[in-house]
Specification:
Shape: globular
Structural class: alpha/beta
Number of strands: 10
Number of helices: 14
Bound molecules: 2-deoxy-2-amino glucitol-6-phosphate
Helix content: 40-55%
Strand content: 5-15%
Radius of gyration: 20 Å
C-alpha cells in the first residue's frame, strides 16, 4: 500500500504532489509548437459553432463546481461570452434557459456523478452542445457528452479532490484561450503571454511543495478550533470556497467562505476575539478593497492568516497575524497556485485531528445517487 502511495503517507498528499505533472500532462499536445497557440484537436465543436455561442452554462458538483467558478471568470474575461454557473443538483429544477446556441460545460472528475449526468441530459434535450471536462475517459459523462476535454491528472483515489481540481483549472484556461482565438477577442500577443505564464506554473508549484512547514504549523494551530472563515474577492473568493469545502470535508472543522465585501452584511457579527480568518489577498485589482475587509475583521480581534504575494507581506502584516507568500503569476492563473496552501492546510489539519484523511466520514469518492 505504501508503494501505491509512492512513499507518501496518504493518497491525498501524493496527489497534491502530483499536481505539477498533472499540469504538464493536461497542457501537453494542446499548445502548438510555437508555444503561442492553443490547439484542441479533440473538439468536434466547429469554429462556426463557436462563433455562434450566445451563452455558456457551467454545471458541476462540489470541487468541480468550484473549478467552474474559475472557468467562468476565465471565459468571461478572455472571451466576453456570458457564463452562468450552477451546482448540478439545482440546475434542472430552475428550468434553465437553454437554446441551441448555448454551450453547456459539465465538469466531473469521475464522470459518474449522478446530478451532473442528469444535467448533461437535460441540456442535450434542449438541443445544447455539451462539452465535458472529465478525468475518466470511458466514464458515463465522457460517453454521453458531445465533446470531451480529458484532464490528465491520473487516477485520484483520495476522497478530497486536489489534482483533479487544478487540472480542471488548466483545462478551463486552455478552453478559454481557444475560444478567444476563434472569436478573435484577444490579440495573439496576449494569448502567447498567458500561455507562457501557464507553462511556468508546474515549476512554481514544485517550489511551493518544497516548503510545507509554515502551512503545517498553521494547520496544527487551527486544528484546535471548531469554526473559521475564509474571505476573498473575485478569484480569491472562488478559491476561498474550495479551501473551505476541503477543510470541512477532511478536518471536520466548520468553516465558511465569504466574499470579503459581503461580511458586513451579516457574518461580521460572528467575528470575535481569536477566531481564525484565512484571507486570500492575491488579486491586485481588488487588493485595496480586500485589505479594508481584513481591517474590519482585525478590529474585531480575528486571528488572520493571509495568502498573498511577497511584495504585500510587509504591509499586510500590519493587520494580519501571519502571511504566506505564493509565487507570482498572472491574476487569472493565480488560483492554480493559491489553492495549494489550502489543500495542504486541510491535509495537515485533518492529520493533526487524527482523522482518516483519505476516507472522510459520510462521504464517497463518486456520488452516483441524486
Ligand atoms: C471534493 O473534494 C469532493 N469530494 C466532491 O465535492 C467532488 O468534487 C464532487 O462530488 C464532484 O465529483 P466529480 O468531480 O467526480 O463529479
Amino acid at each position: 500500500v505504501t508503494a501505491e502511495k509512492g512513499g507518501f503517507e496518504h493518497f491525498m498528499l501524493k496527489e497534491i504532489h502530483e499536481q505539477p505533472k498533472a499540469y504538464r500532462d493536461t497542457m501537453r499536445g494542446r499548445i502548438d509548437e510555437s508555444g503561442k497557440k492553443v490547439v484542441l484537436p479533440e473538439l468536434k465543436l466547429t469554429p462556426e459553432q463557436i462563433k455562434g455561442i450566445s451563452k455558456i452554462q457551467i454545471v458541476a458538483c462540489g470541487t468541480a463546481y468550484h473549478a467552474g467558478l474559475v472557468g467562468r471568470h476565465a471565459i468571461e474575461s478572455l472571451v466576453r461570452i456570458p457564463v452562468e454557473t450552477d451546482v448540478a443538483s439545482e440546475y434542472r429544477y430552475r428550468s434553465p434557459i437553454v437554446t441551441k446556441d448555448t454551450l453547456v460545460i459539465v465538469v466531473s472528475q469521475s464522470g459518474e456523478t449522478a446530478d451532473t449526468l442528469a444535467a448533461l441530459r437535460e441540456a442535450q434535450s434542449h438541443g445544447a452542445h455539451v462539452l465535458a471536462i472529465t478525468n475518466v475517459v470511458g466514464s458515463s459523462i465522457a460517453r454521453d457528452a458531445d465533446d470531451v476535454i480529458v484532464t490528465l491528472a491520473g487516477p485520484e483515489i483520495a476522497v478530497a479532490s486536489t489534482k483533479a481540481y487544478t487540472s480542471q483549472l488548466i483545462a478551463f484556461y486552455l478552453l478559454a484561450l481557444y475560444l478567444a482565438e476563434v472569436r478573435g477577442t484577444q490579440t495573439p500577443e496576449e494569448v502567447a503571454r498567458i500561455i507562457a505564464a501557464m507553462q511556468a506554473l508546474p515549476e512554481q508549484l514544485e517550489s511551493m511543495l518544497e516548503k510545507p512547514d509554515a502551512i503545517k504549523a498553521y494547520a496544527e494551530q487551527i486544528s484546535k478550533h471548531e469554526h473559521l472563515f475564509f474571505i476573498g474577492r473575485g478569484l480569491d473568493y472562488a478559491v476561498a470556497q474550495e479551501g473551505s469545502l476541503k477543510l470541512k470535508e477532511i478536518s471536520y472543522i466548520h468553516s465558511e467562505a465569504y466574499a470579503a465585501g459581503e461580511l458586513k452584511h451579516g457574518t461580521l457579527a460572528l467575528i470575535e476575539e481569536g477566531i481564525p480568518v484565512i484571507a486570500l489577498a492575491t488579486q491586485e485589482a481588488v487588493l485595496e478593497k480586500t485589505v479594508s475587509n481584513i481591517k474590519e475583521v482585525s478590529a474585531r480581534g480575528a486571528d488572520i492568516m493571509a495568502i498573498t504575494h511577497e511584495e504585500h507581506v510587509a504591509s499586510l502584516l500590519k493587520s494580519v497575524n501571519q502571511a504566506f507568500a505564493i509565487p507570482k503569476t498572472l491574476p487569472l492563473l493565480t488560483p492554480a497556485l493559491s489553492v495549494v496552501p489550502l489543500q495542504l492546510l486541510s491535509y495537515y489539519a485533518s492529520l493533526a485531528r487524527g482523522n482518516d484523511v483519505d476516507k472522510p466520514r459520510n462521504l464517497a469518492k463518486s456520488v452516483t445517487v441524486e
